[in-house]
Amino acid sequence: DAKTTQPNSMESNEEEPVHLPCNHSTISGTDYIHWYRQLPSQGPEYVIHGLTSNVNNRMASLAIAEDRKSSTLILHRATLRDAAVYYCIRMNNNAGNMLTFGGGTRLMVKP
Amino acid sequence: DSGVTQTPKHLITATGQRVTLRCSPRSGDLSVYWYQQSLDQGLQFLIQYYNGEERAKGNILERFSAQQFPDLHSELNLSSLELGDSALYFCASNKWGGTGELFFGEGSRLTVL
Question: Which residues of A touch B (CB under 8 A)?
Fold first, then answer.
C-alpha cells in the first residue's frame, strides 16, 4: 500500500513548467515526502524530499500543502530529458526508512 | 553514475535454478536496500541491511535471501526460480539508513525461462 495517489500520466511542452501533483491524505507527522524519478532503462533517481516546508534544489521545487495532505513537484522548465516516471513516496523513518513506491506519473515532454 | 555497482547486468536462467546478484554500495555508505521491479507489481521493497545487519524486511519470498558482508557489499540469492521471478532487481545505498536520498544502481535484469 503506497498510500500516495498520483495521476497515471501527464504531458508537457518542452521549456514549460510542469506541476506534478501527489495526494497523501493519510500522512503522519513523521512521514517525509520523497520524489524519485525513473528514466527509461535506468534505476530510480532521487529528485527532492521534504517534511513540512517547501524545498528547492537544482533539479526541482517541492511545494507541500499546509495540512501536508498533498504536495506538488515543480519542474521549472521541462526538457526532453525530464521524460520519466515520477514517484511520490511517503518515507516513514520509524519503519526502517524503506521507500514504498506506488504507480507513479509518467511524464511525457513534447518538443 | 550513482556510484552503486550491480552485477551482472543481465542474467538468463531456467526455472528451478539458483542465482546470486551482487551489489557494491557507494563508497562510505553503510546501508543497502534491495528492490524488485516487475511489470505487474512495480517497484517492491525486498530487504534492507545496515552495516552487516538486517534492518527491515519487505515482500521478500522465503526462496530469496540476502546478506551484507564486512566490506559492505551485498548479495541477493534467488533460489528455486520461477517464471514470475523474472524482473529487474535494484540495489540502493545510503550512508546511515536515515531519511536522506537513496542512490540506486542500474539494476540486474533476470530472465527465467
Answer: 32, 34, 36, 42-46, 49, 87, 91, 93, 95-104
Written as nine digits, the cell of A1 is 500500500
Separation of alpha carbons A47 and A37, rounded Å = 7
Q: Facing residues of B62 across strands?
A: none
User: pLDDT, tens digit, for every residue of B52-76?
Assistant: 999 989 989 999 999 999 999 999 9
CA distance B17 to chain A (A): 26
Per the DSSP assignment, residues forming a β-bridge with A107 are A10, A84
pLDDT tens string A65-110: 999 999 999 999 999 999 999 999 988 766 556 777 888 999 999 9
Whether residue A21 has a cis bond before it, omega within 30° of 0: no
| CA-wise closest residue to A71 among A48, A94, A44, A45 | A48
* 3-state class (DSSP) for residue A95: helix
